[in-house]
């Protein structure tokens, strides 16, 4: 594809994202490329990169383009956003104008009005001290007081780290081979990667390499999983022979890692309320050679949980959450999140925790995790849980997982952030249910 055709693709993709305001952008993009199978891998990456750069700079681009208040929100079209983004990454206006040539596969020429709007950007940087903090750091206005409370002086550095592109991490499936073996195979297949600093099974790839086409991925030797998510699985410390419940298993991202630390021995039940997500787990479990997982679809009025009270050695609650820790990957999610969502999510998390608490056997463990950065969904949620559920305490030091690096074993609960650890944002709390009597 020519650069102009790629630009056209990015504009079309952003239009598709804009036309589906309630759907996550990555789901829209998957659909977009499925319907355009003629677009090859390199072109796909170029199109997505520009579209995602725009999504990551959404508030700042709108701030610039609507600096002249005569312009309405509708004037800021995906065409203009892409052109402005190209300007801010250093392309001269004349070369941007030549991409909008109107020739075959190229976007239509820039109108006079569009040119005026773009010319006004000359000599400016995308971030400006004049922008209010939520604009400069790309988060919704209403979230500001929450972030001030949670991060205090660290707010700027934490939120800035969340604006960058994420790393691409793999987890080596020890059921199929070692990390050294996986690194050797990756190099042989032309990929560049290094062992992760914190996860014992992780490999961090350089840039965005098309690893899903690699033979070692298709064979199940590696799985795509952020290092932070791997560390949540490490915190669970699932051992061979145990009976474990992954209560919000989704498409089994963490279940796979738990089955690995259990060496495929014992039993994992993977539950979720979403059939689509649980179905998505089947193929991944097969590819990874995992045999000790059964799945259960939770439904309203389901007696399943009632019948299994006190039966599990460990229950993991990887709770539905705001996903604020994954904003590097899903920058569009910032635009959809509302204060009402946070309130609803907190209530849901508390309800799930209370059900899960009953499923743990006396002396067993409950692990709560989110990919949120917000105290309301994390520390405060656990504080309230421990007040409600007197049988539970935070896991004592001697029982914490030795799969975790020393620095993460100091407390029974910890947070990971892109700024602090170079991972997605995660929170985990490990608790123990006291034995009766
Ligand atoms: C953070 S995601 C789980 C991600 C998954 N554990 C992984 O590692 O890939 C949260 C999951 O909770 C599920 N969920 C939402 N409400 C639930 C409920 N009331 N009970 C159990 N699962 C629920 C969602 O369908 C979603 O799959």
From TrEMBL:
Record keywords: Methyltransferase, RNA-binding, S-adenosyl-L-methionine, Transferase
Organism's domain of life?
Answer: Bacteria
Q: Which residues bind S-adenosyl-L-methionine?
A: 272, 318
Q: Which InterPro entries match?
A: MeTrfase_RsmB-F_NOP2_cat, MeTrfase_RsmB-F_NOP2_dom, RCMT, RsmB-like_ferredoxin, SAM-dependent_MTases_sf
> According to its UniProt record, which residues of this chain constitute the active site?
371
UniProt-recorded Gene Ontology molecular function terms: methyltransferase activity
An example GO BP is: methylation
Which residues does the UniProt record annotate as the domain SAM-dependent MTase RsmB/NOP-type?
A: 158-434
Q: Which Pfam families match?
A: Methyltr_RsmB-F, RsmF-B_ferredox
Q: Which family does it belong to?
A: Belongs to the class I-like SAM-binding methyltransferase superfamily. RsmB/NOP family.
Q: List the PANTHER family.
A: NOP2 YEAST -RELATED NOL1/NOP2/FMU SUN DOMAIN-CONTAINING, RIBOSOMAL RNA SMALL SUBUNIT METHYLTRANSFERASE B-RELATED
The name this protein goes by in its record: RsmB/NOP family class I SAM-dependent RNA methyltransferase
Q: Which organism is it from?
A: Parasaccharibacter apium
């Amino acid at each position: 594809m020519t650069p102009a055709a790629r630009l056209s693709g990015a504009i079309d993709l952003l239009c598709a994202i804009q036309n589906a305001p309630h759907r996550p952008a990555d789901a829209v993009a998957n659909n977009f490329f499925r319907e355009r199978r003629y677009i090859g891998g390199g072109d796909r990456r170029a199109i997505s990169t520009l579209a995602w750069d725009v999504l990551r700079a959404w508030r700042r681009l709108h701030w610039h383009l609507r600096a002249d208040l005569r312009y309405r929100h509708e004037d800021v079209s995906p065409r203009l956003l892409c052109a402005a983004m190209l300007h801010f990454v250093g392309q001269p206006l004349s070369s941007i104008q030549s991409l909008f040539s109107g020739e075959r596969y190229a976007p239509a020429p820039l109108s006079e009005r569009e040119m005026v709007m773009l010319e006004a950007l000359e000599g400016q940087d995308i971030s400006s001290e004049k922008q209010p903090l939520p604009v400069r750091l790309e988060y919704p206005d209403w979230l500001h007081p929450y972030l001030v409370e949670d991060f205090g002086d660290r707010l700027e550095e934490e939120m800035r780290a969340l604006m960058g592109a994420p790393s691409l991490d793999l987890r080596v499936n020890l059921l199929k081979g070692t990390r050294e073996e996986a690194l050797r195979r990756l190099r042989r297949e032309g990929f560049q990667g290094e062992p992760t600093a914190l996860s014992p099974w992780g490999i961090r790839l350089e840039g965005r390499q098309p690893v899903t086409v690699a033979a070692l991925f298709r064979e199940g030797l590696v799985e795509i999983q952020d290092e932070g998510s791997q560390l949540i699985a490490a915190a669970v410390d699932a051992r061979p022979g145990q009976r474990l419940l992954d209560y919000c298993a989704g498409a089994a991202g963490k279940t796979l890692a738990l089955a690995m630390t259990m060496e495929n021995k014992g039993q994992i039940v993977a539950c979720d309320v979403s059939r689509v997500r649980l179905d998505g787990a089947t193929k991944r479990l097969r590819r990874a050679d995992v045999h000790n997982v059964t799945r259960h679809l939770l439904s309203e009025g389901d007696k399943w949980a009632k019948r299994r009270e006190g039966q599990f050695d460990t229950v993991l609650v990887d709770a539905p959450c705001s996903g604020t820790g994954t904003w590097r990957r899903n920058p569009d999610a910032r635009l959809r999140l509302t204060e009402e969502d946070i309130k609803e999510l907190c209530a849901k998390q508390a309800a799930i925790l209370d059900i899960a608490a009953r499923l743990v056997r006396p002396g067993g463990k409950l692990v709560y995790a989110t990919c949120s950065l917000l105290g309301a969904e994390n520390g405060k949620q656990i504080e309230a849980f421990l007040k409600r559920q007197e049988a539970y305490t935070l896991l004592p030091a001697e029982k914490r997982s030795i799969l975790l690096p020393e620095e993460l074993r100091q407390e029974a609960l910890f947070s990971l952030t892109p700024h602090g650890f170079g991972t997605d944002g995660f929170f985990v709390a490990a608790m123990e249910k006291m034995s009766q009597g």
